[in-house]
């Protein structure tokens, strides 16, 4: 930052501290963050739609044959950008935000602002079967994080403002401010207090107003509710809840299975080529898999399933409703595959909107099956399409309240609130019992970076091992005599514990002062007793790279020790004492609870 700008910022900060209270400043910042996140969402959306509109004529003219090459072109452009500009692998948007909040005090890089604005439109615009919500949230969160750093905002408030950015982006895309707030609470495990509620509300309103300002009254889903909830349909909504629950399990497992297959391809070029060809084949056979899929959802809501399916190799058979049902069920199956293939091949995008597409297809399939079984039942296909979306959202990302309020706001009322609750709750319960973690959280759980509504686990997750490692222990060598140890280490140490290290600084044992106290004054054995005869193995060892703070606490509990050695890169790093860890935990808990 130039000196003049830095000086101006310093003057502003001094003026702010004197004239604006911290609470008021946070509220003002939440409005700004909501506006900027909304602006980011509008930019991502319009950039993608611009690319799609340019390519649409070519797709029609080529009779869908361009589907074979467009995804590869888009993925190649993303690959070139990542290699020569971004210069590090793309990360899953929401997961990287959670990791930042958990382990990096809410700090996101400056390039996280503009990278999603470039890579997501290229991926989705050229046919990648992913969503734009994740990139919009990532970019907005990065804006919030860097603004917070610029204005010297503390880590805890920075976390709140990052959540405000996510609320602003979601509110802007879906024009659903309540669901946006609930998403921030459910996914980022934010404590919903009056202190956090007002900034989230202001950011959400700001995001919605930004969307209205730039897009007018344009709505994502052109839907008006014609049929409300009927009591006799309750069993069918239960059935839909069960179906979306199992579909959510399939979606999640397929995601990790396909990603594991792509990890076996070491070269990004091979991933790009395999992924691009696979997506192209799927798009040619099932055109609705192209891009996000909001057009597909809108056509289903309008009752026009033929337009939703588009031109496919099976057009000659679509007069048969069961062929239509089979094709829609195919979209349910292949949306998860196409989405994960796009991400595995190096594309940028989110999973939230693909879950909506898959849920809408599944809901429509269930309704069509009920209506065409010949048993005299009749249900609203558009209602089931909507509620199917809620079921998949609740199951896949473990956010039932977000799912309920999002669909309720989309419909413009709460006439479907009861069936939404039934389906979302059943889907969530089934998935939660089958899968401990979501697409967002599974990898984070492995490294102890998972945020939780459990305050104890949350505080442990926020603690850093470097903050509690103590290094003022005097090491000893196994070939040292007792006399050498007493004169060189014991007499100069304030601790009663001594790590035994070999020539390569590897820990091979420990000596506790109590072990040698009976022989400390027996000078006759000073030269005949050696450290290697006195040392013993530590009760437990902490591994810096793999153990998280929850595992460290468990090792203390299981071993009963008060000090445990830390091994980093195979070598001795220091000790963690239970007393220091509990003190750090208490301080973090007090700070978190305020």
From TrEMBL:
<protein>
    <submittedName>
        <fullName>CBS domain-containing protein</fullName>
    </submittedName>
</protein>
<keyword id="KW-0472">Membrane</keyword>
<feature type="transmembrane region" description="Helical">
    <location>
        <begin position="414"/>
        <end position="431"/>
    </location>
</feature>
<feature type="domain" description="CBS">
    <location>
        <begin position="469"/>
        <end position="528"/>
    </location>
</feature>
<keyword id="KW-0129">CBS domain</keyword>
<feature type="transmembrane region" description="Helical">
    <location>
        <begin position="321"/>
        <end position="338"/>
    </location>
</feature>
<dbReference type="GO" id="GO:0005254">
    <property type="term" value="F:chloride channel activity"/>
</dbReference>
<feature type="transmembrane region" description="Helical">
    <location>
        <begin position="64"/>
        <end position="82"/>
    </location>
</feature>
<keyword id="KW-0406">Ion transport</keyword>
<dbReference type="Pfam" id="PF00571">
    <property type="entry name" value="CBS"/>
</dbReference>
<dbReference type="InterPro" id="IPR000644">
    <property type="entry name" value="CBS_dom"/>
</dbReference>
<dbReference type="InterPro" id="IPR014743">
    <property type="entry name" value="Cl-channel_core"/>
</dbReference>
<keyword id="KW-0407">Ion channel</keyword>
<feature type="transmembrane region" description="Helical">
    <location>
        <begin position="157"/>
        <end position="185"/>
    </location>
</feature>
<feature type="domain" description="CBS">
    <location>
        <begin position="535"/>
        <end position="593"/>
    </location>
</feature>
<feature type="transmembrane region" description="Helical">
    <location>
        <begin position="272"/>
        <end position="290"/>
    </location>
</feature>
<dbReference type="Pfam" id="PF00654">
    <property type="entry name" value="Voltage_CLC"/>
</dbReference>
<keyword id="KW-1133">Transmembrane helix</keyword>
<feature type="transmembrane region" description="Helical">
    <location>
        <begin position="235"/>
        <end position="252"/>
    </location>
</feature>
<feature type="transmembrane region" description="Helical">
    <location>
        <begin position="345"/>
        <end position="366"/>
    </location>
</feature>
<feature type="transmembrane region" description="Helical">
    <location>
        <begin position="386"/>
        <end position="407"/>
    </location>
</feature>
<keyword id="KW-0813">Transport</keyword>
<keyword id="KW-0868">Chloride</keyword>
<dbReference type="GO" id="GO:0034707">
    <property type="term" value="C:chloride channel complex"/>
</dbReference>
<feature type="transmembrane region" description="Helical">
    <location>
        <begin position="197"/>
        <end position="215"/>
    </location>
</feature>
<keyword id="KW-0869">Chloride channel</keyword>
<feature type="transmembrane region" description="Helical">
    <location>
        <begin position="20"/>
        <end position="44"/>
    </location>
</feature>
<feature type="transmembrane region" description="Helical">
    <location>
        <begin position="113"/>
        <end position="137"/>
    </location>
</feature>
<keyword id="KW-0812">Transmembrane</keyword>
<dbReference type="InterPro" id="IPR050368">
    <property type="entry name" value="ClC-type_chloride_channel"/>
</dbReference>
<dbReference type="InterPro" id="IPR001807">
    <property type="entry name" value="ClC"/>
</dbReference>
<dbReference type="InterPro" id="IPR046342">
    <property type="entry name" value="CBS_dom_sf"/>
</dbReference>
